[in-house]
Amino acid sequence: MDQVIERVLLTEVEIQKKVEELGAQISADYEGKDLLVVGILKGALVFMADLIRAIQIPVTIDFMAVSSYGQGATSSGAVRILKDLDRAVEDRHILIVEDIVDTGLTLNYLLDNLRSRGAASVKVCTILDKPNRRTIPIEPDYNGFVIPDEFVVGYGLDYAEKYRHFPYVAILKREVYER
Ligand code: 5GP
Ligand code: MG
Ligand code: MG
Q1: Would residue 40 count as lying in a domain?
Q2: pTM of the model
Q3: ipTM for the complex shown
């Protein structure tokens, strides 16, 4: 166990089982449709890589990178696009893949933004959901796990760009934040 970890919330095995289930559900729902999976960098990288291999229908992929203006809890809700999609998405069925939905500000922005480009449909798949923190009433269409209001890392999620590579989702020791 890594020295910085207080507690593992979700093991690698639990996560993989859930991703298989999500992949099966998405495959059934999008059967016969032209599906574009859009990963939100960097947090969704690990989940996206697993999810597209669990989806059993042909997909194409693209990525966006966004950052919120303001700091953490004081975020204004404005989102800045750091990297946009490579191609137009008119008439495509888009599935946004995000690591976590917390306040909902990021996903709310992305949904509005992609819908305004004339996509045929835009849905959201997250691996983690912290519903207690929501400021915008938005629910992912697909979600892996509802988690408590704790700051988590691993499976793509970082603290100061670290710990994304942990294969599990964990709560950090308090001293990691305070040192
Ligand atoms: P929202 O816009 O829903 O408030 O925030 C979504 C973003 O905040 C996520 O994509 C993620 O980057 C970050 N975030 C929210 N909760 C956590 C958490 O518990 N751990 C980490 N590492 N990032 C989080
Ligand atoms: Mg994210
Ligand atoms: Mg982050």
Answers
A1: yes
A2: 0.94
A3: 0.96
